[in-house]
Amino acid sequence: ARFALPGGQELGRGDEVLTYVARNLEPYRGFHTFMRALPKVLAQRPDAQVVIVGGDSVSYGGSAPDGKNWREHMLAEVGPLPGRVHFVGRLAYADYVRLIQVSSVHAYLTYPFVLSWSMLEVMAVGGFVVGSATPPVEEVITDGETGWRVDFFDKTAWGERLAEALARRSDVDDL
Questions:
Q1: Residues 8-61: pLDDT tens digits?
Q2: What pLDDT does 114 receive?
Q3: Residue 7: how many other CB atoms lie within 10 Å
Q4: Which one, 58, 67, 85, 171, has least CB within 10 Å?
């Protein structure tokens, strides 16, 4: 599979690709924790491409406190990110499937809430998931066997585990 970024660059299975998917980018799905972990991941993995899928509305929870959407709010907090971080908005289903097929590591975070279809679909195409150590993720991911789990709020641990998973992506593919 190949996934075309908005600027025309194509990503394939051999590329180092970190994905994050949510209907909307918001705290209920751990967007804030993921964004806070990104600087560490980017510093440790200079070839990684990060593809973030999701809209700027709110599906669950509240709006950002400053009148911005959560993407803008978190970008203001973490500062400018390099051009290898791609916010692609919402995707057509066929494009989404191509993206998760080329993903090296998929970050899945959620409060104790309904499990998202995206996590199951990533696992169904053989993708490696680093997921939050929260119910119902704990029902699907056995840490070290079917993926890795990380404390939902620990941005440092998220940065370390995502960078490690990218570095060891041939090893984690065997899980």
A1: 999 999 999 999 999 999 999 999 999 999 999 999 999 999 999 999 999 988
A2: 85
A3: 7
A4: 67
Cβ pair 162, 41 in contact under 8 A: yes
Burial 78-103 (b: 16+ CB within 10 A, else e): eeebeebbbbbeebeeeebebbbbbb
Place of tokens 């960078």: 163
Tens of pLDDT along 76-109?
999 999 999 999 999 999 999 999 999 999 999 9
> How many angstroms separate the CA atoms of 82 and 47, rounded?
11
Cis bond leading into 39, ω under 30°? no
Per-residue pLDDT at 174: 63
- 107 and 25 in contact (C-beta within 8 Å)? no
Contact (CB, 8 A) for 37 and 72: no
What local confidence, expressed as pLDDT, does residue 73 receive?
97
Q: How many CB atoms lie within 10 A of CB 128?
A: 22
Residue 157 in tokens: 């641990």
Task: Name which of 118, 107, 100, 121 is nearest 152 in CA terms.
Answer: 107
- Helices and strands: H and E segment counts in the chain: 7, 8
